[in-house]
Amino acid sequence: MATIITMPRLSDTMTEGTVATWLKKVGDKINEGEILAEIETDKATMEFESFNEGTLLHIGIPAGETAPVDSLLAIIGKEGEDISALLSGKPADDAPVKEETKVTEETVATPEATKVAASATTSLPKGVVVITMPRLSDTMTEGTVATWLKKVGDAVTEGDILAEIETDKATMEFESFNEGTLLYVGIEEGNTAPVDSLLAIIGPAGTDISGIAENYKTGGAPLAAPTVAEEKEVASTEKASEPIVQEPSTDGQRILASPLAKKIASDKGIQLTQVKGSGENGRIVKSDVENFTPKTAAAPAPTTETASAKTETVAAAKPFVPAGEVFTEEIKNSQMRKIIAKRLAESLFTAPHYNLVIEVTMDEAMKSRAIINSVPDTKVSFNDMVIKACAMALKKHPKINSQWREDSILINHHVNIGVAVAVEDGLVVPVLRFTDAMSLSQIGGNVRDLAGRAKNKKLLPTEMEESTFTVSNLGMFGITEFNSIINQPNSAILSVGAIVEKPVVKNGQIVVGNTMMLSLACDHRTIDGATGAQFLQTLKQFIENPVTMLA
């Protein structure tokens, strides 16, 4: 059954894309995960992979040509399958439909297909624009609406932020490229839907869009459009200043709370019924939850009757059974957590991992860092020094900087180091491009900038792509040694432990020294043990003698 593929939105500001190169041609077999084409966005040229298997039956945008987001890019299906109905937008009624060539609604639930379906029954009124769930990263297949910043009935201008959308890599602001009134919301807050599902409809105020909403599908099921009365009710009860989450209280009343306040309360185990809101109409906001101190109820004095009962219990010498309450909590997996689970499982079970560990003396590095940081406006961390040393060692041992392919090994002679950063929902890996060309201070500045924006969910998808090697550091948590899972398609990842002061032997004498453990996880398909060991020896020399990194 054929599947329509549309021009993806590969960045949050992309409105059109240019096919730089087709890596497949009509008639080629396509496997899931294979790169179909290189697409030039408003920010970078990115590889676009297939999420389907089959034969490439049609190319809708030739190499070198530009088309808007959601334009027909390609069709994938069974070899020899008749796709004329998809190209024309209507089925061939006079021709029998074979079972193997039947196209279902589920496989063609894309803007191109649904717009064709919609146009067959309803033409878009003047000024009405349909907005679909964007593909905000090259690996995104579905998105979750974290927060709507506009509600039905609100005026929208070009550049306004409509919603915050959680992808497989980050939560990103999604801005409007159109002006008008928000007439319809297709995906409610907290709900997840595939890329290209109906997200919203914008147009002139008062426009009847019920026919449009009914013809656009989400996962093959029709979406019901809100009535005018419902829109008015929503507009009158919701506040535009901040999204409001209503929580039921014990007395049947509704409690108003912002999504962030609700999340913090859930994390801290605080009942919102106990919190007094300081926001508009008593709405509970972030500061109310953070400043909340639960009141401890005074224990009632035991009565004569209860005291007597306790005496009898002791006299009976019955075993003590503590009173308690079984308490569990179920947390919905975020898109980031789902992708982390998928990617790491794929890496661990497809790449044969092995680990090499080496101990590095840090005395000279500590002295050098103190001297460097004595220069005004200069701040370099030990992690920055490790990254710089890795970049230089990778130039000397390029096999470590490689990628496994089924028919070849790709050796990268450029060095793009990914730096693992822990964020609230999991882990992201922003990338320092051409790290070997950076000075220590440049590495430090870039790492601080990327890590800061990662924790504030402001990283762009393009800033987390094309790494050739990864560094993960848990030393700041006191972890002395650990092993990481390779961040594919990299062939290796370095795990950095804490600096430990301990007795060491120098020149035959036991003295106090400072050491650090490094663990290199390698993909045995691309890196042999001796190759990994030689890389670690070079890395050790650079770190133990920082002056050599300045040569």
Automatic annotation (TrEMBL):
Family matches, as InterPro entries: 2-oxoA_DH_lipoyl-BS, 2-oxoacid_DH_actylTfrase, Biotin_lipoyl, CAT-like_dom_sf, E2/Pdx1, E3-bd_dom_sf, PSBD, Single_hybrid_motif
Secretion signal span: none
CDD domains: lipoyl_domain (cd06849)
Cofactor: (R)-lipoate
Molecular function as annotated in GO: acyltransferase activity
PANTHER family attached to this UniProt entry: DIHYDROLIPOAMIDE ACETYL/SUCCINYL-TRANSFERASE-RELATED (PTHR23151), DIHYDROLIPOYLLYSINE-RESIDUE ACETYLTRANSFERASE COMPONENT OF PYRUVATE DEHYDROGENASE COMPLEX, MITOCHONDRIAL-RELATED (PTHR23151:SF90)
Broad class of enzyme this protein falls into: transferase
Name of the protein described by the UniProt record: Dihydrolipoamide acetyltransferase component of pyruvate dehydrogenase complex
Domain spans labelled Peripheral subunit-binding (PSBD): 256-293
Keywords: Acyltransferase, Lipoyl, Pyruvate, Transferase
GO biological process: pyruvate decarboxylation to acetyl-CoA
EC number(s) stated in the UniProt entry for this protein: 2.3.1.-
Cellular component GO terms held in the UniProt record: pyruvate dehydrogenase complex
Known function: The pyruvate dehydrogenase complex catalyzes the overall conversion of pyruvate to acetyl-CoA and CO(2). It contains multiple copies of three enzymatic components: pyruvate dehydrogenase (E1), dihydrolipoamide acetyltransferase (E2) and lipoamide dehydrogenase (E3).
Stored Pfam families: 2-oxoacid_dh, Biotin_lipoyl, E3_binding
Domain Lipoyl-binding: 2-77, 128-203
Family from the record: Belongs to the 2-oxoacid dehydrogenase family.
